[in-house]
Amino acid sequence: MAGMKITESLNEITRTWLSMVDTLYRWTAGVAQLQVEELAHRFGKRNVLWRVTLKVEAGECAVLYGANGSGKSTLLSLLATRLRIQQGRCLLDDINLQTQGEQARRRLLFVGHHTHLYGHLSPLENLIFFCDMHQLSIERSVLIEAVATVGLAPFVHQPIRWFSAGMKKRLALARILVAHPSLLLLDEPYSALDHAGVDWLNGTIDRFQKQGGLVVMASHDPEKVSPLKHSPWRLEKGVLSPWQDVSSC
User: Which pLDDT band holds residue 1 (cuts at 50, 70, 90)?
Assistant: First the structure.
């Protein structure tokens, strides 16, 4: 009997140690996992999301399709901790998005319809402000390189107020290059981008996935998404389900 108890204790210690090693490996290697369980959300009396369940592993990209008003942006806002979770649970590794929002925000990046850029600032100044807000210590040369990578090198010191929508979208996406998040949340990222911008974005997402990053994206354009390794999902009347026939998007 004593021998059995010792064996059970050793097994428990081994399981605990392996769990700690796995957690440490996932954190240091930048590997993460997103788990959404039975998520529901209402605006007043209107159900926007109902029992949404989604699991995204390291290196995976989940693409959300659906009509306007189907709940795609709401789901992304919940994952970005911009909206309070009313029902269900969301975990980024062992971080609970509902109770540990500040910790979760350090490991995710959300790029939505609104670029949250300041017109009187230059591209470089906008990135410096972004880094200050997120407590990121990034060399100035790295920020200048990020601006150049998205094709805005000639305008690095010019106020962006007169930039086109596509140029502003490129600058907003340049944050990916400096934030190094575990989870990337993108709401219609291809909007306003030209062909070269789409190719650059897909290349950036592809490299991010290969490094173990997680991507959840809302899109209406399966053709632009198609070069990416991804899993398509459909939101209809707040219900999320796997989707095979994206041609009807």
Answer: low
